[in-house]
Each structure stands twice: as C-alpha cells, then as structure tokens.
Amino acid sequence: MLERPEEVLFVDGYNIINAWPNLQSAKEIDLETARQKLVDIMSEYSALTGVKVKVVFDAHMVEGGRRIIENINGVEVVYTKERETADNYIEKMVESYGKESGKEYRVRVATSDFLEQRIVLGKGAIRVSARELLYEVNRIFEERRKKEDIMKSRKETLADRLDETTLKSLINRIKGCQA
Questions:
Q1: Which superkingdom is the protein from (predicted)?
Q2: Which domains does the chain have, with CATH numbers?
C-alpha cells in the first residue's frame, strides 16, 4: 500500500490577514490580535487535518532583526530576519523540502500574491489562494461541528453503550436484587 506523503502548508501570514475579512477587522484593532487569531485558526486546522502548518510573517523591515521561529500550539510561527521577506523564506523552505532525502512531502503555499504563486509552483509546491484556504478551513470546521452535533444528539446512557446480551444480563441481575 502506498503511503501518503506528509503534508506541509506554508502560510504567508500578512497576505492571509489582509485577505480574510475576520482577520482584516481584527487587524484594524490590533495587528498582534490578528496574528494570534490566524495562528489559532491554523492550529485548529492542523489538529483536525494532520497537516504541518508553518505561518511566516515578514519582519524584514525590523532593523537588526533576527529570524525568530517558535512553536505555538503545534504551528511553527516564523518571523523573518532583517532584509528577508516572508516570500524569500517560503521559497527557500519549499526548495529545501524538495531536496530532503528519504522522505516525500506534499508542500503547499497559501498566498494570494500572484508572483509568489508562480515562483513556488516552479519549485514544485502547490499554490493555495487565500480564498481557497478560507474555504478549506471553513469546510473542515463545519465537518467537525456536524460530527460534534451528531455526538451530542446521541443518548449517553449506559444502556445505549452496552450490547444486547450484556444489557439483558444486567437487567436480570437488577431484577434479581429487587426480589
């Protein structure tokens, strides 16, 4: 049986924040809040799908800035170093995943930057627009909600969880104790 390749999703953080309405409105209040909301959404997405998510934020304009990589709730969050854009970092990483020996990866890049989409396609990644990612995230969250609704609607009694033979045996024992 063929194993599915491990999937990695690079997210151009500010590109997605500027494209998703709920994050745009959060950004108007506070950029840090918008970043945290995006990371929270992608953390939940990763937990539900098993996809490794790496959210990359530009920090190339920060003088003397060093690259910062941290793990937040299972999501790798990258702040690029001085003079390094999120696009530059993502391109390098896409290329490195293609060269890693012994393991096959399915690499996707979420951005609506047309030029960046073309570049990562040329390096072997699959491009995902901000709109497509939003649709995918919403679909997966909706599937989870439906499953939760089904689980909530089921009766949660002991009798519902027992097979018929065990249930009859238990009922007979209870009746025997009452006699």
A1: Bacteria
A2: 6-178 (3.40.50)
